[in-house]
Amino acid sequence: MLRSKIAGIGRYVPEKTVTNQDLEKVMDTTDAWVQERTGIKERHYAHKYEETATTMGARAAAIAIERAGIQKEDVDFIIFATLSPDYYFPGCGVLLQRELGITSTEIAALDIRNQCSGFVYGLSVADQFIKTGMYKNILLVGAEIHSMGLDFSTEGRNVTVIFGDGAGAVVLQPTEEEGRGVLTTKLHSDGTYAEKLALINPGAHAGYHYRKLGEEVDLGYPETEYGETFITQKMLDDKLFYPYMDGPFVFKMAVQKFPEVIMEALHAVGLAPSDINMLVPHQANLRISEFVAKKLGLGPDQVWSNIQKYGNTTAASIPIALCEAVEAGAVKPGDLVCLAAFGSGFTWGSALIRW
Ligand code: UT7
Fold first, then answer.
1. Can you give the pLDDT at residue 178?
2. Pick the CATH number of 3-175 from 1.10.940.10, 3.40.47.10, 1.10.1520.10, 3.50.20.20
3. Whole-prediction pTM value?
4. Which of 61, 75, 253, 335 is a plausible cystine mate for 277, CB 3.0–4.6 Å?
5. Ligand 1 atom closest to Cα of residue 317
6. Confidence class of residue 222 from pLDDT cuts 50, 70 and 90?
7. CATH number of 181-193+245-354, picked from 3.40.50.2300, 3.40.50.2000, 3.40.47.10, 3.40.50.300
8. Per-residue pLDDT tens for 304-317?
Protein backbone atom coordinates (compact mmCIF):
# COMPACT_ATOMS: atom_id res chain seq x y z
CA MET A 1 0.00 0.00 0.00
CA LEU A 2 1.29 3.44 -0.97
CA ARG A 3 1.80 5.82 1.95
CA SER A 4 3.43 9.21 2.45
CA LYS A 5 6.62 9.43 4.48
CA ILE A 6 8.47 12.47 5.74
CA ALA A 7 11.74 12.13 3.85
CA GLY A 8 13.30 15.36 5.08
CA ILE A 9 12.55 18.03 7.67
CA GLY A 10 13.99 21.48 8.37
CA ARG A 11 13.36 24.53 10.53
CA TYR A 12 14.40 28.12 10.75
CA VAL A 13 13.86 30.67 13.47
CA PRO A 14 15.12 34.22 13.12
CA GLU A 15 18.12 35.32 15.13
CA LYS A 16 16.50 38.05 17.24
CA THR A 17 15.28 36.84 20.62
CA VAL A 18 12.65 38.87 22.48
CA THR A 19 12.20 37.96 26.13
CA ASN A 20 9.19 38.65 28.31
CA GLN A 21 11.34 41.26 30.06
CA ASP A 22 11.84 42.98 26.70
CA LEU A 23 8.05 43.18 26.27
CA GLU A 24 7.68 44.53 29.85
CA LYS A 25 9.44 47.64 28.55
CA VAL A 26 6.80 48.43 25.92
CA MET A 27 3.54 47.25 27.52
CA ASP A 28 2.02 46.59 30.92
CA THR A 29 2.89 42.92 31.32
CA THR A 30 5.18 40.82 33.47
CA ASP A 31 7.44 37.86 32.91
CA ALA A 32 5.62 36.10 35.76
CA TRP A 33 2.17 36.56 34.13
CA VAL A 34 3.32 35.32 30.73
CA GLN A 35 5.18 32.30 32.13
CA GLU A 36 2.41 31.31 34.51
CA ARG A 37 -0.40 31.57 31.90
CA THR A 38 1.45 30.30 28.81
CA GLY A 39 4.87 28.83 29.68
CA ILE A 40 6.52 31.26 27.25
CA LYS A 41 9.88 32.77 28.24
CA GLU A 42 10.95 34.22 24.91
CA ARG A 43 10.15 34.24 21.20
CA HIS A 44 12.04 35.12 18.02
CA TYR A 45 11.24 38.06 15.75
CA ALA A 46 12.17 38.26 12.10
CA HIS A 47 14.48 40.96 10.80
CA LYS A 48 12.14 43.91 10.28
CA TYR A 49 13.08 44.72 6.70
CA GLU A 50 14.72 41.60 5.39
CA GLU A 51 12.68 38.59 6.45
CA THR A 52 9.18 37.44 5.55
CA ALA A 53 7.17 34.22 5.82
CA THR A 54 8.53 33.32 2.39
CA THR A 55 12.22 33.94 3.15
CA MET A 56 12.01 32.05 6.45
CA GLY A 57 10.05 29.26 4.75
CA ALA A 58 12.76 29.03 2.10
CA ARG A 59 15.48 28.64 4.77
CA ALA A 60 13.58 25.75 6.38
CA ALA A 61 12.71 24.25 2.98
CA ALA A 62 16.34 24.20 1.82
CA ILE A 63 17.26 22.08 4.86
CA ALA A 64 14.29 19.72 4.36
CA ILE A 65 15.18 19.29 0.67
CA GLU A 66 18.81 18.53 1.45
CA ARG A 67 17.90 16.03 4.17
CA ALA A 68 15.46 14.33 1.79
CA GLY A 69 18.40 13.78 -0.54
CA ILE A 70 16.73 15.49 -3.48
CA GLN A 71 17.40 18.58 -5.57
CA LYS A 72 15.05 21.57 -5.42
CA GLU A 73 14.14 20.81 -9.06
CA ASP A 74 12.71 17.45 -7.91
CA VAL A 75 9.95 19.20 -5.93
CA ASP A 76 6.70 18.75 -7.88
CA PHE A 77 4.22 20.43 -5.54
CA ILE A 78 4.52 23.21 -2.96
CA ILE A 79 2.02 23.64 -0.16
CA PHE A 80 2.47 26.77 1.95
CA ALA A 81 0.56 27.32 5.18
CA THR A 82 0.62 30.77 6.77
CA LEU A 83 -1.67 33.42 8.24
CA SER A 84 0.96 36.11 7.74
CA PRO A 85 1.69 36.08 4.01
CA ASP A 86 4.05 38.52 2.29
CA TYR A 87 1.23 39.80 0.08
CA TYR A 88 -2.56 39.75 0.31
CA PHE A 89 -2.25 37.99 -3.05
CA PRO A 90 -0.59 36.11 -4.65
CA GLY A 91 0.13 33.67 -1.86
CA CYS A 92 3.47 32.54 -0.50
CA GLY A 93 3.51 29.28 -2.51
CA VAL A 94 4.63 30.91 -5.74
CA LEU A 95 6.88 33.34 -3.87
CA LEU A 96 8.63 30.38 -2.26
CA GLN A 97 9.05 28.74 -5.66
CA ARG A 98 10.79 31.91 -6.87
CA GLU A 99 12.82 32.32 -3.67
CA LEU A 100 14.14 28.77 -4.02
CA GLY A 101 14.99 29.42 -7.67
CA ILE A 102 12.68 26.71 -9.03
CA THR A 103 12.10 27.85 -12.60
CA SER A 104 10.22 24.80 -13.90
CA THR A 105 6.52 25.43 -14.53
CA GLU A 106 5.74 21.71 -14.23
CA ILE A 107 5.40 22.37 -10.50
CA ALA A 108 2.19 23.45 -8.73
CA ALA A 109 1.83 25.72 -5.69
CA LEU A 110 -1.03 25.86 -3.21
CA ASP A 111 -1.64 28.16 -0.24
CA ILE A 112 -3.37 27.08 2.92
CA ARG A 113 -5.10 29.54 5.23
CA ASN A 114 -5.92 27.47 8.26
CA GLN A 115 -3.87 29.30 10.85
CA CYS A 116 -2.76 27.03 13.72
CA SER A 117 -3.95 23.87 12.00
CA GLY A 118 -2.47 24.87 8.62
CA PHE A 119 0.36 22.36 8.82
CA VAL A 120 -1.88 19.42 9.73
CA TYR A 121 -4.30 20.40 6.94
CA GLY A 122 -1.36 20.69 4.53
CA LEU A 123 -0.07 17.29 5.57
CA SER A 124 -3.46 15.75 4.92
CA VAL A 125 -3.72 17.38 1.47
CA ALA A 126 -0.19 16.24 0.60
CA ASP A 127 -0.97 12.73 1.82
CA GLN A 128 -3.94 12.44 -0.55
CA PHE A 129 -1.86 13.56 -3.54
CA ILE A 130 0.93 11.12 -2.68
CA LYS A 131 -1.49 8.21 -2.21
CA THR A 132 -3.08 8.80 -5.61
CA GLY A 133 0.39 8.86 -7.19
CA MET A 134 -0.05 12.40 -8.54
CA TYR A 135 3.06 13.87 -6.84
CA LYS A 136 6.31 12.34 -5.60
CA ASN A 137 8.17 15.13 -3.81
CA ILE A 138 5.82 17.49 -2.03
CA LEU A 139 7.34 20.41 -0.16
CA LEU A 140 5.08 21.40 2.73
CA VAL A 141 5.98 24.61 4.55
CA GLY A 142 4.52 26.35 7.60
CA ALA A 143 5.91 29.84 8.21
CA GLU A 144 4.83 32.91 10.15
CA ILE A 145 5.92 36.47 10.72
CA HIS A 146 3.65 37.67 13.51
CA SER A 147 5.96 40.40 14.74
CA MET A 148 5.09 42.70 11.83
CA GLY A 149 1.43 43.06 12.75
CA LEU A 150 0.88 42.84 16.50
CA ASP A 151 -0.33 45.56 18.84
CA PHE A 152 2.65 46.35 21.08
CA SER A 153 0.60 48.63 23.33
CA THR A 154 -0.97 47.32 26.57
CA GLU A 155 -4.29 47.00 24.73
CA GLY A 156 -2.93 44.15 22.65
CA ARG A 157 -0.99 42.37 25.39
CA ASN A 158 -3.18 39.25 25.67
CA VAL A 159 -2.42 38.40 22.02
CA THR A 160 1.01 39.94 21.46
CA VAL A 161 2.93 38.17 24.24
CA ILE A 162 1.93 34.78 22.81
CA PHE A 163 3.10 34.92 19.22
CA GLY A 164 6.51 34.45 17.62
CA ASP A 165 8.07 34.07 14.18
CA GLY A 166 9.62 31.06 12.47
CA ALA A 167 9.28 28.39 9.83
CA GLY A 168 9.33 24.64 9.39
CA ALA A 169 9.24 22.45 6.30
CA VAL A 170 9.00 18.82 5.27
CA VAL A 171 9.43 16.88 2.04
CA LEU A 172 6.85 14.13 1.60
CA GLN A 173 7.49 11.15 -0.63
CA PRO A 174 5.67 7.89 -1.37
CA THR A 175 6.78 4.74 0.39
CA GLU A 176 5.71 1.11 0.18
CA GLU A 177 7.70 0.16 3.27
CA GLU A 178 5.41 -1.95 5.46
CA GLY A 179 3.89 0.01 8.33
CA ARG A 180 5.82 3.22 7.66
CA GLY A 181 4.52 6.71 6.94
CA VAL A 182 1.33 8.68 7.50
CA LEU A 183 -1.23 6.23 8.92
CA THR A 184 -4.19 8.61 9.04
CA THR A 185 -5.21 12.26 9.21
CA LYS A 186 -8.40 13.75 10.66
CA LEU A 187 -9.66 17.25 9.89
CA HIS A 188 -12.51 19.35 11.31
CA SER A 189 -13.93 22.85 11.13
CA ASP A 190 -16.65 24.94 12.75
CA GLY A 191 -17.19 28.44 11.39
CA THR A 192 -19.63 29.36 14.17
CA TYR A 193 -16.86 31.01 16.16
CA ALA A 194 -14.82 32.49 13.32
CA GLU A 195 -14.51 35.89 15.01
CA LYS A 196 -13.34 34.48 18.37
CA LEU A 197 -9.79 34.43 17.00
CA ALA A 198 -9.48 36.55 13.91
CA LEU A 199 -8.03 39.47 12.03
CA ILE A 200 -10.97 40.78 10.04
CA ASN A 201 -9.69 44.15 8.81
CA PRO A 202 -8.79 45.08 6.20
CA GLY A 203 -11.45 43.01 4.56
CA ALA A 204 -14.34 42.87 2.18
CA HIS A 205 -17.26 44.55 3.97
CA ALA A 206 -16.15 43.59 7.44
CA GLY A 207 -19.06 45.74 8.65
CA TYR A 208 -21.50 43.15 7.33
CA HIS A 209 -19.95 40.49 9.56
CA TYR A 210 -20.00 42.75 12.61
CA ARG A 211 -23.71 43.50 12.08
CA LYS A 212 -24.47 39.79 11.68
CA LEU A 213 -22.86 39.23 15.06
CA GLY A 214 -25.18 41.85 16.51
CA GLU A 215 -22.49 44.51 16.85
CA GLU A 216 -22.71 47.92 15.28
CA VAL A 217 -19.10 48.87 14.57
CA ASP A 218 -18.46 52.03 12.58
CA LEU A 219 -15.67 51.25 10.17
CA GLY A 220 -15.87 54.68 8.60
CA TYR A 221 -17.06 53.67 5.14
CA PRO A 222 -17.28 56.84 3.02
CA GLU A 223 -20.40 57.72 1.05
CA THR A 224 -18.84 56.93 -2.31
CA GLU A 225 -20.66 54.88 -4.93
CA TYR A 226 -17.92 52.29 -5.49
CA GLY A 227 -15.16 50.73 -3.44
CA GLU A 228 -13.30 52.31 -0.51
CA THR A 229 -14.49 49.71 1.96
CA PHE A 230 -11.41 47.49 2.13
CA ILE A 231 -9.27 49.93 4.11
CA THR A 232 -10.69 53.11 5.62
CA GLN A 233 -8.99 55.91 7.54
CA LYS A 234 -11.11 54.98 10.57
CA MET A 235 -9.77 51.42 10.53
CA LEU A 236 -6.27 52.88 10.74
CA ASP A 237 -7.13 55.53 13.34
CA ASP A 238 -8.95 53.05 15.59
CA LYS A 239 -6.32 50.31 15.06
CA LEU A 240 -8.94 47.86 13.84
CA PHE A 241 -6.34 45.86 11.94
CA TYR A 242 -4.87 43.90 14.86
CA PRO A 243 -5.70 40.26 15.61
CA TYR A 244 -8.43 39.68 18.17
CA MET A 245 -8.66 36.67 20.47
CA ASP A 246 -11.16 35.71 23.13
CA GLY A 247 -8.44 33.80 24.99
CA PRO A 248 -10.49 32.00 27.65
CA PHE A 249 -13.09 30.88 25.06
CA VAL A 250 -10.42 29.57 22.69
CA PHE A 251 -8.68 27.85 25.61
CA LYS A 252 -11.86 25.99 26.61
CA MET A 253 -12.48 24.81 23.04
CA ALA A 254 -8.84 23.79 22.57
CA VAL A 255 -8.66 21.54 25.62
CA GLN A 256 -11.81 19.78 24.41
CA LYS A 257 -10.91 19.40 20.74
CA PHE A 258 -7.25 18.33 21.07
CA PRO A 259 -7.98 15.07 22.95
CA GLU A 260 -11.08 14.37 20.82
CA VAL A 261 -9.27 14.59 17.50
CA ILE A 262 -6.26 12.62 18.77
CA MET A 263 -8.55 9.83 19.99
CA GLU A 264 -10.41 9.88 16.65
CA ALA A 265 -7.15 9.24 14.77
CA LEU A 266 -6.06 6.52 17.18
CA HIS A 267 -9.42 4.75 16.91
CA ALA A 268 -9.24 4.87 13.10
CA VAL A 269 -6.09 2.74 13.10
CA GLY A 270 -6.87 0.62 16.18
CA LEU A 271 -4.29 2.18 18.48
CA ALA A 272 -4.42 3.72 21.98
CA PRO A 273 -2.78 6.76 23.61
CA SER A 274 -0.23 4.44 25.24
CA ASP A 275 1.03 3.55 21.72
CA ILE A 276 2.09 7.16 21.10
CA ASN A 277 5.86 7.59 21.38
CA MET A 278 5.80 11.32 20.73
CA LEU A 279 2.90 13.76 20.65
CA VAL A 280 3.84 16.97 18.86
CA PRO A 281 0.96 19.33 19.55
CA HIS A 282 0.59 22.77 18.04
CA GLN A 283 2.39 24.97 20.56
CA ALA A 284 -0.53 27.18 21.60
CA ASN A 285 -0.02 27.31 25.33
CA LEU A 286 2.00 25.05 27.67
CA ARG A 287 -1.06 24.74 29.91
CA ILE A 288 -3.10 23.38 26.99
CA SER A 289 -0.41 20.80 26.13
CA GLU A 290 -0.14 19.73 29.77
CA PHE A 291 -3.90 19.37 30.03
CA VAL A 292 -4.03 17.24 26.86
CA ALA A 293 -1.15 15.06 28.07
CA LYS A 294 -2.88 14.48 31.40
CA LYS A 295 -6.19 13.64 29.73
CA LEU A 296 -4.50 11.04 27.50
CA GLY A 297 -2.27 9.70 30.25
CA LEU A 298 0.96 10.71 28.48
CA GLY A 299 4.17 11.40 30.41
CA PRO A 300 6.41 14.43 29.84
CA ASP A 301 8.79 12.37 27.65
CA GLN A 302 5.88 11.59 25.29
CA VAL A 303 5.02 15.23 24.55
CA TRP A 304 7.27 17.73 22.78
CA SER A 305 7.08 21.28 24.11
CA ASN A 306 9.18 24.19 22.90
CA ILE A 307 6.75 27.08 23.34
CA GLN A 308 9.04 28.32 26.13
CA LYS A 309 11.60 29.36 23.47
CA TYR A 310 9.49 30.30 20.47
CA GLY A 311 6.00 31.26 21.64
CA ASN A 312 3.13 30.31 19.38
CA THR A 313 4.26 30.30 15.74
CA THR A 314 0.88 29.07 14.41
CA ALA A 315 1.39 27.15 11.13
CA ALA A 316 5.13 26.85 11.82
CA SER A 317 4.88 25.48 15.33
CA ILE A 318 4.36 21.78 14.54
CA PRO A 319 7.11 21.44 11.91
CA ILE A 320 9.57 23.39 14.09
CA ALA A 321 8.75 21.20 17.09
CA LEU A 322 8.83 17.97 15.09
CA CYS A 323 12.17 18.93 13.54
CA GLU A 324 13.63 19.67 16.98
CA ALA A 325 12.37 16.36 18.33
CA VAL A 326 13.91 14.47 15.41
CA GLU A 327 17.22 16.33 15.71
CA ALA A 328 17.30 15.59 19.45
CA GLY A 329 16.86 11.86 18.75
CA ALA A 330 13.53 11.87 20.58
CA VAL A 331 11.78 10.47 17.49
CA LYS A 332 13.32 7.28 16.14
CA PRO A 333 12.48 4.99 13.22
CA GLY A 334 9.41 2.91 14.05
CA ASP A 335 8.07 5.42 16.59
CA LEU A 336 4.43 6.43 16.50
CA VAL A 337 4.27 10.22 16.18
CA CYS A 338 1.03 12.10 16.70
CA LEU A 339 0.52 15.65 15.43
CA ALA A 340 -2.48 17.67 16.59
CA ALA A 341 -3.65 21.24 16.20
CA PHE A 342 -6.51 23.54 17.06
CA GLY A 343 -6.99 27.19 16.22
CA SER A 344 -8.70 30.05 14.46
CA GLY A 345 -11.64 29.09 12.27
CA PHE A 346 -12.15 27.11 14.32
CA THR A 347 -10.26 24.41 12.49
CA TRP A 348 -8.55 21.44 14.06
CA GLY A 349 -6.99 18.16 13.08
CA SER A 350 -4.57 15.35 13.84
CA ALA A 351 -2.17 13.02 12.07
CA LEU A 352 -0.54 9.73 13.03
CA ILE A 353 2.82 8.93 11.49
CA ARG A 354 4.87 5.74 11.87
CA TRP A 355 8.35 7.26 11.66
O1 UT7 B 1 -2.91 29.06 18.77
C2 UT7 B 1 -4.20 29.42 18.49
C3 UT7 B 1 -5.09 29.08 19.59
N4 UT7 B 1 -4.88 29.96 20.72
C5 UT7 B 1 -4.95 29.47 21.93
O6 UT7 B 1 -5.12 28.29 22.09
C7 UT7 B 1 -4.89 30.44 23.09
C8 UT7 B 1 -5.88 30.03 24.13
N9 UT7 B 1 -5.96 30.98 25.24
C10 UT7 B 1 -4.95 31.17 26.11
O11 UT7 B 1 -3.90 30.59 25.97
C12 UT7 B 1 -5.21 32.07 27.29
O13 UT7 B 1 -6.55 32.46 27.30
C14 UT7 B 1 -4.31 33.33 27.31
C15 UT7 B 1 -2.88 32.96 27.60
C16 UT7 B 1 -4.42 34.07 25.99
C17 UT7 B 1 -4.78 34.30 28.40
O18 UT7 B 1 -4.76 33.66 29.64
P19 UT7 B 1 -6.04 33.67 30.58
O20 UT7 B 1 -5.65 32.98 31.80
O21 UT7 B 1 -7.20 33.14 29.82
O22 UT7 B 1 -6.19 35.23 30.89
P23 UT7 B 1 -7.41 36.21 30.60
O24 UT7 B 1 -7.46 36.56 29.16
O25 UT7 B 1 -8.65 35.67 31.23
O26 UT7 B 1 -6.97 37.50 31.39
C27 UT7 B 1 -6.81 37.50 32.82
C28 UT7 B 1 -6.26 38.84 33.26
C29 UT7 B 1 -7.07 40.02 32.72
O30 UT7 B 1 -7.06 41.03 33.71
P31 UT7 B 1 -8.33 41.22 34.68
O32 UT7 B 1 -9.49 41.51 33.76
O33 UT7 B 1 -8.49 39.93 35.42
O34 UT7 B 1 -7.93 42.37 35.53
C35 UT7 B 1 -6.24 40.50 31.56
O36 UT7 B 1 -6.42 41.87 31.28
O37 UT7 B 1 -4.92 39.02 32.77
C38 UT7 B 1 -4.84 40.26 32.05
N39 UT7 B 1 -3.87 40.08 30.98
C40 UT7 B 1 -2.55 40.31 31.13
N41 UT7 B 1 -1.82 40.73 32.17
C42 UT7 B 1 -0.49 40.84 32.00
C43 UT7 B 1 -4.09 39.66 29.70
N44 UT7 B 1 -2.93 39.61 29.04
C45 UT7 B 1 -1.96 40.02 29.90
C46 UT7 B 1 -0.57 40.16 29.77
N47 UT7 B 1 0.12 40.57 30.86
N48 UT7 B 1 0.10 39.89 28.63
1. 87
2. 3.40.47.10
3. 0.96
4. 335
5. 1
6. confident
7. 3.40.47.10
8. 999 999 999 999 99
Domains of the chain, by residue range, sit at 3-175, 181-193+245-354, 200-241
DSSP 165-228: -EEEEEEEEEE-STT-EEEEEEEEE-GGGGGGEE---S-SSHHHHHHHTT--------S-SS--
Whether residue 285 has its Cβ less than 6 Å from ligand 1: yes
- d(CA 64, CA 60) in angstroms, rounded, equals 6
Closest residue by Cα to atom 40, ligand 1, is 158
Which of ligand 1's atoms lies nearest the C-alpha of 285? 11
Backbone angles phi and psi of 348, in degrees to 5: -155, 165
Task: Output the pLDDT for position 198.
Answer: 94
101-134 residue pLDDT tens: 999 999 999 999 999 999 999 999 999 999 999 9
Rounded CA separation 322/333 (Å)? 14
Closest Cα to atom 12 of ligand 1: 247
Decide whether any atom of ligand 1 lies within 6 Å of the 289 Cβ: no
Judge if the beta carbon of residue 312 lies within 6 A of ligand 1. Answer: yes
pLDDT at 214 over 90: no
Q: Which atom of ligand 1 is nearest to the CA of 29?
A: 47
**188 labelled catalytic:** no
Q: Is 254 a pocket residue for ligand 1 (Cβ < 6 Å)?
A: yes
157-166, 198-207, 277-286: lowest mean pLDDT where?
A: 198-207
Q: Is the dihedral of CA 171, 172, 176, 179 positive or negative?
A: positive
- Spatial distance between the Cα atoms of 100 and 72, rounded to a whole number of angstroms: 7
Measured in angstroms, how far is the CA atom of residue 317 from the centroid of ligand 1?
A: 20
pLDDT, mean of residues 90-103: 98
